[in-house]
């Protein structure tokens, strides 16, 4: 299903599978111009700081938009064959992960070329990547269930993601977030995950074990709770989809 | 299960009634199947007839496992394969070959069986390479049916559940499918075919009638004209009921 998902992205397009990879780059150029050139956000090496945060964020925003309708879109399949329907949203999040990894490789090459790469720290990216996948998959499972029963979500999701974007320190600094929205800085798993990406790719450091354990525990627990919810609800999906 | 391939006991399947806005109305259900008792032996081809909304598709979907009984039970002994929906709009941007692999995987084939699947589509469905390489959206419903039936009837299923779709096939292909179903059932498999087609019903060992979710106790004789008198009150089934 992941291969099918990737193939479907490439059909009847000019840019095909390159578009999901190009989107973070396009956003990067836009936000660099707006926040670095115009608003003069005071962060050293802002382009690197920005892209290290955009990587996990674009995965989240692009994947949620697709995964939210993954079950409703496949109504005919759900009504025809019995299989674990959890594969439908999970195929969307897994195919998005492929693009995230490709973009990450490109970013690492740029970091190496500009002398900003901390190569020995790269293996530590496994933790935020796994945490991000688990968290986004958990949210996707819930959104896909809601979309089967109520179509309001697909109208609102784009706006919710935009609001969420400004609540996560992607384009501004972590310190700014703590000053104005401290409760989000402490509670939003995405802020944790973006922070861990930046630690490795921007700061050249590794966060404490405690931070990683808390992040992994929250994301794993959240994913398992969403998976349980989906599994309980999927028995009735064919009647409602 | 002894000598039965499919058996149901007091099988009830209900749907929540929904408002025009598509939201469920609290506490209101419509019953697509009402206490169905069914027993199908190995080797049997059973036809199911009944008016629109009588519960035929719901029964087949429950056999396939897509729907779960609201009450009672339905047991199937062996691997069940079904064609209850043709999915003409699904995967329409993929090539026919890519969709074939997807459908094959869902029937228990492996991805690396793609050459075998293509051979089945060639030989049984008479679909050539030009068709297999074309996008799905360029195919007619009849061609899609050929593709899906070619895979289903060669997927080593013990129980086949096929909805009225075969009526969309031309006579030659329909006869080929019915011959193949006969071979599968002669080997110990069973088939349940929902249809209004006298020719198809004439190939069944027995024909059962569903009326408003109730399986009539008397069995109709297979043969032309067995589905000529649909029940007069099926219009009472709520329109929200998708059977």
Compact description:
Chain A has 241 residues and is mainly α. Chain A is 78% helix and 0% strand.
Question: Which features would summarize this protein structure in a list?
Answer:
heterodimer, A: about 240 residues, mainly alpha, about 80% helix, B: about 240 residues, alpha/beta, 3-stranded antiparallel sheet, globular, disordered C terminus
**Number of spatially distinct domains of chain A:** 1
CA(first)-CA(last) distance of chain B: 28 Å
What is the global morphology of chain B? Answer: globular
Q: Please write the string of helix (H) and strand (E) elements of chain B.
A: EEEHEEHHHHEHEHEE
Q: C-alpha Rg of chain B, in Å?
A: 18 Å
Overall mean pLDDT of chain A stands at: 88
> Measured on Cα atoms, how large is the radius of gyration of chain A?
18 Å
Please bin the fraction of helical residues of chain A. over 70%
- Class by SSE composition of chain B: alpha/beta
Number of helices of chain B: 7
The largest pleated sheet of chain A is described as: none
Number of strands of chain B: 9
Taken in chain order, the helices and strands of chain A follow as HHHHHHHHHHHHH
Helix content percent band of chain B: 25-40%
Mean pLDDT of chain B: 83
Shape of chain A: globular
Largest sheet composition of chain B: 6 strands, mixed
Unreliable stretches of chain A (pLDDT < 50, length at least 5) are none
Widest β-sheet, arrangement of strands of chain B? 5-6-7-3-8-9
